Amino acid sequence: MSGAGPSLHPGDWPSRAVLKFPPDAAPAPIPPPWDGVPTFANPFPIPEDIYQAALSYKVPLAIASVYAVTVTYFNWYNRQHGNKPWRIAKTRPFHAFVIFHNVFLAVYSAITCVAMVLCLKHSFPHYSEPNAVVGTIDALCKIHGPRGLGDAVTYRNDANTWSSLNSNIAMGSAGLPDTTDVGRMWNEGLAFWGWWFYLSKFYEVLDTAIILAKGKRSTTLQKYHHAGAMLSMWAGMRFMSPPIWMFVLVNSGIHAMMYTYYTIAALGYRVPNAVKRTLTTLQITQFLVGSTFAALHLFISYTVPVSVAYKFAEKVAPQVNATTISSAISSATDSATAALPTATGAAVAFLRKLIYRAAGDEGLAENIPVPGSPIPVYQQQHVVAAHPDHHNPVQNFFRHHDTVEKVKYRTEYQSVPCIDTSGQAFAVYLNLIYLAPLTLLFMRFFFKSYLRRTNPSAKHQTQHQALSKAAHDAAHGVEREIESLGKATEDGISSAVKKSKDTLRGRKINANGDVKDERHGSLSPANKKFVDNVNKKVSQRLQEIDENAESLTKRAKEIARDVVGKTEETKDKVESQYQQGKENVKQESEKPDKNARPEVKKENSNVKDEEPTSRPGTPGTPQSKKARQRAAKKAREDAEKGEGQSEEKNDLNLSYEAVQKPEKEPEPKDINNTLDKGEGKGLF
């Protein structure tokens, strides 16, 4: 396409080759340049094998997956344990580590942000230069080669080579972009600082570890951001996609502020909640701006000046004398040979470099050939030979010099896309897939909040206040919506983990996914069933024993009552018989003896008194002291005989001494109370 000057063409659809999936592996990521001199853009070299190995797709995919699952599990774990801080979180080394971690990331993020600002400064054309707008678009879309509109080096998928539309741009070793090229973002710091910023995304997961150790819950928005940032940075650096510079610049700037806030909070200083809300709003805003900016790269093309070679034929008048022609040719050759060193000297090369730099063609200035280098092919003239005539050699000699073909160059403007490879396009729409949910949610909540605040029935607010409040409400709504989805995901993962454990332990799972025969602790279903049967039998036996004990207690109470009643009756009978026997003994002892003779005092004191005898036919009344004793003894025997013949003689065997001095028997009420307390077993 030709035109009057460079122009911008937004709205062009990308080619189908660019949207290819899976993307082409070529080209491989190019390590940052290193010429032995440390600069702020490239402080030290990075080995090529390490640089490319870290950008393998397996690295971010594995780490992001493990991170997401681990954080989800520990969120569920903390919730099950009441969100209590872990033991390590209460130690002084942990507190010191938190402060060091936040200070390190704040300083590192600030340095990265400054490096990217300088990278853009060295890559963008000055606003006073001609075609500065299109030149800025070219600097944003093409990140390899020297600075200058149309001087970029791009990769051609159809030819699998690096090339430039400007034929004066030389390639480096192995056909790659020259590491000495200046003025494009990749060599000006993006290759170095972008790679380290990609690795820092793996280190930033310690933010989540600190939150979990404190017993808190890591928000779903934070988890989503960390996992997505790993994949987005990997794709941008692996395929050297142009929009990746903005992710590094904006994200590092927000992180510098965010980790400064965390450092102040960790030191014990109170930070207003407005600061935290502002940082959250900035993070969500960068999602919106970043996704929009990245998507525009797919639909933008622009024109660049291209020097196009055109061939034309020029006739040379033939000379009459062949000798004259030969001498003229020889003289011209000698003159050209003598003038060549002067024409290609160092002074001319230096002047040409100054002219190109003044015109803004840094790439041409850096690629001016040194003195003594061969003349490029496009600068050589070509002679077009006429058809030879074998029958006339002299005529053929003159015809050979009749027409000379020359090459002239004309500047034209060709349209080039902003995205060149399928890998660069893949990095763009991977970021869109990552940021699309957040963007859609934000816009949804923003419009709802904005329309509500600008409702005529609402309080009067300025346009700025309405936009600010709507943005804040939208950010809060996005966080709330993502949080609810995260909790549902955590519950689902915890259920899946539990079911997996059930399956590994031999538990049966129904078709619906429910546990059919769940284990209890370490017991298998069969052992659990056996234990339940044993417990059931033991419970039944204990119940029977309790019932028997209760019946025995009642029986014991009844027997005790009967014993007490019979004891009272026997006591009364024995006492009555004892009194009656006692009266009989008294009466017998007091009854006078009619047949007794007067007592005769014997002279001999050694003669003992003989017991008197009763007369025949009289009752057995004692006639002396011994007789009275025998009568009393007989009365006692009669009393004992009467007691033995009573109906209670088989139940109780009471002695005469027990009847004479009976012990105090307990009342039935006391015995019942004793049995009720379980102390009645002594009766049996």
Major sheet summary line: 4 strands, antiparallel
- Secondary-structure content class: alpha+beta
Stretches where pLDDT is under 50 for at least 5 consecutive residues are 319-326, 335-344, 372-387, 598-622, 646-684
Query: Which sequence of strands runs across the widest sheet?
Result: 1-4-6-5
Tell me, briefly, the overall form: rod-shaped
Strand segment count: 6
Biased composition (Basic and acidic residues): 566-575, 583-613, 634-651, 660-684
Protein name: Elongation of fatty acids protein
EC number: 2.3.1.-
Membrane topology: Multi-pass membrane protein
Task: Note down, in words, how this protein is organized.
The chain has 684 residues and is of the alpha+beta class. Among the domains are: 226 residues, no CATH class; 111 residues, no CATH class; 131 residues, no CATH class. Helix content is 56%, strand content 7%. It contains 19 helices and 6 strands. The chain has a 4-stranded antiparallel sheet with strand order 1-4-6-5, with helices on one face. Helix 7 packs antiparallel against helix 14 and helix 16 runs antiparallel to helix 19. The radius of gyration is 59 Å and the shape is rod-shaped. 25% of the residues are buried. The C terminus is likely disordered.
